[in-house]
Amino acid sequence: MFDTILFIFAALAAIVGGILTISVKNLMHACVFLLLTLLGVAGLYLTLGADFVGVIQLVVYVGGVVVLMVFAVMLTSGSNAQKVNRFGMVKIPTMGNFRTYTLAGIFAALILMSIIKLYRNVFSMARLEKLPEYYPTVSKIGHSLVSTHVLAFEISSVLLLGALVGAAIISRPKREMR
Amino acid sequence: MSTSNLDIYMPILILLIFGVVLVSATLLIGKLIRPNNPSPVKNQPYECGEDPIGSAWSVFNMRFYVTGLIFIIFDVESALMFPVVGVFKDLNDIGMGGLVFMELFLFLLILAAGLAYCWRKGDLDWVKTYHTEKGQE
Amino acid sequence: MNQTVVSYLLQFEPIKKLVLSLSNLLGFNAISIVSFLIFLIVILIVVGFLATVGGLGTYAERKISADMQARIGPNRVGPYGILQFLADGAKMLLKEDIIPTQSDKFLFYVAPMLCIVGVFGTIAVIPFSSGFTILNFNVGLVYLIGISSLVGLGVFLGGYGSNSKWSMLGGMRGASQIISYEIPVVLSSLSIVLLSGGLSFSALIGAQGGWPHEWFIFHNPFTFIGFFILFIGSLAETNRAPFDLPEAESELVSGYHTEFSGMRFGFFALAEYIEVFVVCGLATALFLGGYNVPMHLGGDGLIGQVLQVGSFVSKTFLLYYIVIVTRWTLPRLRVDQLMTMCWKYLIPIAMFNLIMVGLWMWLFDGRSLFTLLFKSASVASGAGH
How many folded domains does chain C comprise? Predict the structure, then answer.
């Protein structure tokens, strides 16, 4: 019974957080709701039995990405100018034009179709009465990272190096010779 | 013994909800017993007795963001290292310790090279010094 | 693999009988409900204990600092002033809650809650004893590091939401300090994980023994340095002096919690003092042998559990005392000194430690310095290879 409760809480956090993130006007509040969404996703990982991925979600996303977003929002506080479109209505940035909505609709339909196709098998299967036995995933991930996927492990460090150097270069202040 | 093997996450959920409930309940109870006399002077942000000029939500320095960026990289690096160091002892017992140590060393070496690059280029300095005549804090 | 308090308590006959009788009463397996009730009761006990520790921490700080400064400190409320924290709590509850008009009410509400939730979440994995750990998560160390980063977010949002320049500076410095010092903490914990072979606290503590020479701090010289890196990093994570720039009392009025009055400030303070206990507990569990009792006194029964709790709590309180004394001894670091120390000193040293501990593990099969020096004869004739 608790797995249902945990799933409901995690799903509620993820969905409510997601909806509030995109609909709240204040950007800093949106970051707080993004935090709620990411906590919900971590809970969802836990319900799936991926305990290590769930706590890594906590460490990396909640502890790092949200802090970074909050810093970025603070550093780039936008202007408060009201933009008015040709009908005299105040232009809210979430309002798109016709092209936006058509493209968005097409893509949404495509994604929905592919999801339904993928999960048609899942919906036709019989429900599992009991979840599979819990086994810790950390040692499996560790064993595979040093034996089967060691190249991925090392290349990810190169990728991180690239990200580090790129971020440092982009955020370096421009040196102007005056 | 348990009906669902997710029962182990019960205390985490209980504690998180308990934290939220505790804060909300205490503030609500306080609202009933607190005095509430707002006045314009009291509602100003404190600036040692002077009137605050301008909003504090102005653009700040880049160094905080650079720190955050470098932190994220090292955070992901440590997240990747956790499973490897978790199995290091078991693999050491069966003799594969040298191989795992080499892999870990290579991983850390590449990231230490990144740290050294940032250090050398001055991204870790809190007070950035330009190479022009204009210094900035 | 994951043990909880419930699975420990289910060894005892009365609890088993309770579960059976409830199952017969309700018709389905009542283990979930019983686990929920047991968790709730144990959580309430532990939260109460930690809140008292937090409150007494404020009292202890004032008394110890008074002792160091040749004055008396609080001695009016209760015998020797022990009930001072209760009086402070009641005072904070009764104070007017002033929210500046230009500040962000939502963030004013969320920031203390994030700090409290972040600290309460860590309570679930604190290893009080082998049986009374609420949840012996098999990735407990990563979970503790992850959930305590919510506190950094709370600090920043508190500073940002106040719309005051002092609070903004304090919040930003606090957040960048907390995230920067998380890395040396993680790197030194990784070197301990190398030695113990698991991410759960029971594995980390189980690899140590009761006597001091079996603790990880004396395992090899690199873990000795690692302890100090962890300790310094934890001081910075909890915004304690000499790293208390975010709440620098003489510079920023009160930093990120300047504008928070009454109980909102109380939550920040409570979260800080409980977090000091939690990080001291982390340092104890990782380096000082955790809840191990010398010679396994008391065995696995209830007496052994109580002795283990006593061992853990006493070592943590010793570190707590050192944290308090450090605050009133060392001057505050400047912000650029702080960041320089983290990125240019602690992180390279911690990385070097990690590599060296791995090398030690490989070369010496994970034997400690003590074993190598004094027991190499017996080990060489035994099963060593």
Answer: 1
